[in-house]
Amino acid sequence: MTPETSRHADSSAPAPLAACTRALTYQWPAGRTSLHFPDLSVPAGEHLFVKGASGSGKSTLLSLLGGILRPTSGSLALLGEELGPLSNGQRDRFRADHMGVIFQQFNLVPYLSTLANVTLPCRLSARRQRRASPDAHGQARALLQDLAIPESHWHQQVSRLSVGQQQRVAAARALIGQPQLILADEPTSALDADNRDRFIELLLTLAQRSSSSVIFVSHDQSLASHFDQQLVLEATP
Amino acid sequence: MKIRLALSLAWASLWHRRRVLTLATLTLTLSVTLLLGVQYLRTEVRQSFTNTISGTDLIVGARSGQLNLLLYTVFHIGDATNNIRWSTYQDLAGDDRIDWIVPLSLGDSYRGHRVVGTDTGFFDHFRFGRGEALSLTEGQWFGDVFDVVLGAEVARKHQHAPGDELILSHGGGRTSFSNHQDTPFRVTGILAPTGTPVDQAVYISLAGMEAMHIGWESGIAIPGRTVTPDQARARDLTPTSVTAALVGIERKVMTFQVQRQINQYQGEPLSAVLPGVALSELWRIMGQFERALLGITGLVVITSLLGLVAVLLTLQAQRNREIAILRATGASPSLVAALQVIECVTLASIACLLALALSAGGLAVVSPWLLEQHGIQIGLRPLAAAEWLLLACVPATAALVGLLPALLAWRQSRTHGLSHGMGE
After folding, report:
1. pTM above 0.80, yes or no
2. Residue pLDDT, tens place only, B48-60
3. For B370-415, how does the pLDDT look when each residue is reduced to its tens digit (9 = 90+)?
4. Rounded to an integer, what distance in angstroms lies between the CA atom of residue B339 and that of residue B217?
5. B205: phi then psi, degrees, rounded to nearest 5
């Protein structure tokens, strides 16, 4: 790994903000209207709830935060590092090293077993591999246990898992190797009420344990109570 | 690049999709087999074709086209329009510039095989392949009037050994009703296989040819005028004519001069052709078909590669999610591309290996049958450079094909962001 990826591991200095944006805008190439995002600033270890209706650009915001898209204007800093000047490859590596992502559904690579899905980030990032304790497999087992995935399912194809189980496996994958930032895009929309609250509790508890910040996007206002702060995206007119 | 990760992911992915991919790979295998087979046979046929005759500078016969002359003298296809008078033959044999001359007297057959009346010179001077001489596996070249030497294929097919007696038939054709009953010939030798029409012929002396035709002057045996072998021996067996002659020129630079002179021969109309020129003209005609065949095969391969692309692109619809997951987890577009390319190249390589095995196996099964039924000798040999190149084109094309889904995926992630295909 290049030296720059280990720069963020230094925790003795005052922790920089997990995420901080200023006057962020994005214009889709297809010619849709440009999106303006309110500024956000998430201290390390704190969680943010982003509420927005469909079309308010919440997925776009996550793509920007994840470094998949480049903002049209404005600044975006994660863990004290400005993302703007980074090359595509550097942003991919940054994401591999410091972020976990959970989608609405279909989170898992269909041809890998449950365990292989969870340990995937450690194979893509040496930093995540190092930070997984005791090791990638050890932590994967511990996380799966914490997230109540029956051991009989660990070595099976992920298609056998229920939707709720799949989302929990996705959470385990996002958490492994203790990334500082977890991006969640409506991960509970496919779950019923009981499962939804249990999922959020578990996710936040485990994120706390590894002092990761969770940025959670949803249209469901009732989930906001679990989070330290919240942000509302207005639908673009 | 995380090559090991890409390889292990590609392997898991291929294994996961094995059912649908097996079909696509089998389709590709069959078309690669076809391409390889056609190219292989093409080379073999061309090889055996150009190897039919060498070392002969001129073929001389009655006036006719060079293809016709080549076909009936060397390939034993078709018939001569006329003969050369014996005096003309002797005249040519006396020419100082001519090193050697071998007479060929055609027209009879043995169970569908040509009977060639010639002399010892044929055994000494006829060359094939890269100047290889004829050799005998058993017995010796004919010495007596009623001796016959068999081509390898004739002996193999009819289980003949030296000492066997055989009856030759008048005229060509597989089933002739007029046989030279009164003059049986005795096998004295069997030629080693050459992979040329020599294997398909039987050789007797000019005197033998003459002897068995005593009493056949009108084309059929006239009762009372045919003779026994002993009576024949007592007669003068000098032929009155021969069908053609193979000529070797003493100094090769004289070849064209001799050719021109023979073509303008005063005594009777003659033609002299250069075997190499005639062969290449013949090949030019055959080559058209052969190239058409290769073209069609190429189209088949392209079609099946397109089929593979179609299958991969269809699978791609399901892969958008997987690619989004990999990208979100931090995989670079090049890793995603590598994954796809590895998968395509692996499938194509498997198809190529299967095609190689299939071709080799198929050839091993078919070649005894080809030899048995058609006397065509096609053996297994290491592939030539051109064939390896052709084979290598398949994985190379597959790599390009693999880049296509990867490129699409890369563009999609640029234009749709992180969550494309995530059930937005």
Report:
1. no
2. 777 788 889 999 9
3. 766 665 667 778 888 888 888 888 888 888 877 876 777 677 666 6
4. 81
5. -80, 160
Last residue of a domain, one of B273, B299, B315: B273
Distance from C-alpha of A51 to C-alpha of A234, rounded to nearest angstrom: 9
Count of structural domains, chain B? 2
Same domain flag for B45 and B84 = no
DSSP state of A9: G
Whether residue B423 is contained in a domain is answered as no
**C-alpha to C-alpha distance for B192 and B126, rounded to whole angstroms:** 13
What three-state secondary structure class fits B16?
Answer: helix
Could you count the other beta carbons within 10 Å of the beta carbon of residue B279? 22
Instruction: Name the nearest CA neighbour of A107 among A183, A3, A51.
Output: A183
Residue B248 to residues A98, A163, B95, B98: CA-CA distances in angstroms? 86, 88, 11, 6
Q: Is the dihedral of CA B409, B414, B419, B421 positive or negative?
A: negative
Q: Write out chain B residues lying below 8 Å of A93, CB-based.
A: 330, 332
Chain A residues in contact with B15 (beta carbon < 8 A): 111
Q: Is A228 helix (H, G, I), strand (E, B) or coil?
A: coil
Q: What is the CATH number of domain A17-233?
A: 3.40.50.300
* ipTM, two decimals: 0.83
Show which residues on chain B lie within 8 Å of chain A, measured between beta carbons.
Answer: 2, 5, 9, 12-13, 15-17, 318, 321-322, 324-333, 335, 413-415, 417-419, 421-424
In the three-class reduction of DSSP (H, G, I as helix; E, B as strand; rest coil), residue B359 is classed as helix
Structure tokens at B114: 């040509």
Range of the domain at B131: 58-273
Asked whether residue B267 falls in the same domain as residue B303, the answer is no
Q: Where are the beta strands (DSSP E) in chain A?
A: 19-26, 35-36, 41-42, 48-52, 73-78, 81-82, 99-102, 181-185, 213-218, 229-233
